[in-house]
Amino acid sequence: MLIDLKHIFATDNSSLPIEYSLDLSSTEVSGIYPLKKPVTVSGTVSNKASLVVLDAVITYEYDAPCDRCGAETARTHTIRLNKSLAVSIEGEESDSILTVPDMKLDLDELLYSEVIVSLPMKHLCKEDCKGICPKCGKNLNDGKCGCPEKEIDPRLSALAELLNN
Ligand SMILES: [Zn+2]
Ligand SMILES: [Zn+2]
User: Fold this and answer.
1) Residues 112-132: b if buried by 16+ CB within 10 A, e if exposed
2) What's the 153 CA to ligand 2 centre distance in angstroms?
């Protein structure tokens, strides 16, 4: 969706509420589609003493298998946006300034780019997920599996047998 901000740029102390949701369910991330629910944004664009500011919160749900145990896990993440909007930038580009050359804000593009750069590096069903036993495949969050905790060196076990005899 394109939002026309000409009126906001032209009018001191004006503001425009933004409530929007975008379907990113076909966005592939490492072979899966974790953004099953629409991504939403809620906030305002306002002109404060001729400075046009976007103040909004993006909310998205990341729904994917836990990195350690594989359990389907959905977690909600929020991104706080606080950007100045400018028709052109003088000098260096900055993360806090968003250029809108024709005074139109492309919300789809903004949401997509903000969500993509903020996707979680680590996605766990719980902070202390114990994962899966590499030997028997049991989910260790359900309890211990009975496999020996440490791999015993075969030479040591031969020695142990010898000693036992
Ligand atoms: Zn887990
Ligand atoms: Zn095991």
Assistant:
1) bebbeeebeeebbbeeebeeb
2) 17
